[in-house]
Give the backbone structure.
Amino acid sequence: PILYSYFRSSCSWRVRIALALKGISYDLVPVNLLKDGGQQFSAEFKAVNPMQQVPALKIDGITLSQSLAIIHYLEDTRPNPRLLPQDPKKRAQVRMIADHIVSGIQPLQNLSVLKQMGEKKMEWAQNCIASGFQALEQILQHTAGRYSVGDEVSMADLCLVPQVSNAERFRLDMGPYPTITRINKALLELEAFKVSHPSQQPDTPAELGA
């Protein structure tokens, strides 16, 4: 497999976690979203993903984009360890939380949106994440065990950790979100979350590396 990724992209990080959890080795092709006006806009990368976004994954003879579509494919073809619970209610809760983050929070504070916001970008990102986290905190109080849904790592967790990282990058006060904070801390202790971390990537700038 070949993963097109940017070290700080939260969408890429979700997929890196899934690949690590499932023990899938891959080659990484860095796509710098800032350099040269954004390498995602090159003709070469547009041929890989017409949406000109990371991540993209070449695997099993196909090229996939969109992080959840990639993770669902990995789940369908390499089910161990599973990232969706077998119980239909828990499975629905996992998908709900994942969608809440990938549709309701992350796109609003994505690089392409922030570019349009000019000087207000920090305030905009904080407000978008805060309103999403207020809802997420409430949901997690009903669904969480050790992790987002019960005590098994799921697709919801793969979305949660990168989003908390974004929140911290935009200096959001995490005080009002104790459940999110607790789950995030527990997940960051797991090896798959450590090796996939933005500070550990081949394209991580030296000053940001751990």
